[in-house]
Amino acid sequence: MQNEPLAYKMRPRTIHEIVGQQHIIGSATPLFRMIEKGHVPSMLLYGPPGVGKTSIANAIAGSSKLPFFALNATHAGKKDIEQIVMDARMSGKVLLFLDEIHRFNKLQQDTLLPHVENGSIVLIGATTENPFHDVNPAIRSRCGEILQLERLTGDDIIQLLNQALADKERGLGHLEIDITEQQIEKIANASNGDARKALTLLESVYYASDEKDGVTIINDNAIDALAKRIGVFGDKGGSHFYNLLSALQKSVRGSDPNAALYYLAHLLENGDLVAVCRRLLVMAYEDIGLANPSVGAHVQAATEAAVKLGLPEARIPLATAVVEMCLSDKSNSAYKALDSAIAAIHEGKTGDIPNHLKDAHYAGAAELGHVGYKYPHDSPIGTFGGWVQQQYLPDELAGTEFYKPVIAGEEKRMAAIYEKLKSFKK
């Protein structure tokens, strides 16, 4: 055990030792009371790395006293499952912790699922991906609860760090360490809510600091240097990455440049520049739209420049684009109008194209009745250009309005034109 990482050694042994996640397994929760009484339900634990999924499973195992098995779905085979099934038959009931459960294949499921269903195997599945997207419905249906874990708070992390510094059996309590509250807080902040990273950083800082007269004096420079190496919370392509993209768009839509820049920074630190640029370009048309049409061109230029520049320079045009979108007038009327038209088509609200709009660029078109089109440019109307009274929608949809203008920015002018043209129609 001496060679095991500090984060591993400090895992809670029972549910009473769990730090954080009080909304899931705090002493007042139904799950805590069930486990205390010896009943462990099958469940899915969903959340980002380092927030305690494995720790909670181990703590439940320690409190339940059931035979405990742990597998990782990325490399578990059918034989592994069959062995656990055999053990379940021998002992009556076992607890199986299955990490990365979203990678479980059909063959493994077929072997395991009946035993989860009859209760001989209690399954605790863990995943960093959204279980409603990435976990097979057969697994979900047999897990009574889907529990979403949250990133640990700064206070939670500080509590864990202090426990590790005080624990003489499993932690660093047997060592003489000179560390300040400010340094503990700095380590906690660097971990970004990830308990594993916090404890790993503490252990690394200890070994990187100088010793004097048998006392290790924690060095601020060591904390700063090592904190840069522990990585950014989240990963490319995972659920958290898409949550970051969602948070970026909603912050821009909500006109909050500070939040938008924060999420942009997080995304760029994850390194998927192309995905970020694609989302920003969509936002320019989805959320700004007709209220400020020039933004689309600005964001297009910014994203093209970002891709050409690459990181870290790409952050400069992207930051400009994000702030401009945040503080721009906003409208979603154009794409909402298109969505309404699409919905109408799916509802069967269709009709034949009016004859005067059909293609007439061939001999014989007139014989088919494709005549009567009036060319608007031949009928100037003020400074607007050309307009003529003419039906464009099929007869079955005549008079239908899909477009509902938003009175904002440049679209305010367009809305006035739209209403004026409507008034001309007979």
Automatic annotation (TrEMBL):
Keyword hit for Manganese: no
GO terms under biological process: DNA synthesis involved in DNA repair; DNA-templated DNA replication
Occurrences of domain AAA+ ATPase (ranges): 39-151
Pfam families: AAA, AAA_assoc_2, MgsA_C
Listed GO MF terms: ATP binding; ATP hydrolysis activity; DNA binding; enzyme activator activity; single-stranded DNA helicase activity
InterPro entries: AAA+_ATPase (IPR003593), AAA_assoc_2 (IPR032423), AAA_ATPase_RarA/MGS1/WRNIP1 (IPR051314), ATPase_AAA_core (IPR003959), DNA_pol3_clamp-load_cplx_C (IPR008921), MgsA_C (IPR021886), P-loop_NTPase (IPR027417)
Keyword annotations of the record: ATP-binding, Nucleotide-binding
Keyword Disulfide bond attached: no
Domain of life: Bacteria
Family: Belongs to the AAA ATPase family. RarA/MGS1/WRNIP1 subfamily.
Name of the protein described by the UniProt record: Replication-associated recombination protein A
Upper lineage: Bacteria, Bacillati, Bacillota, Bacilli, Bacillales
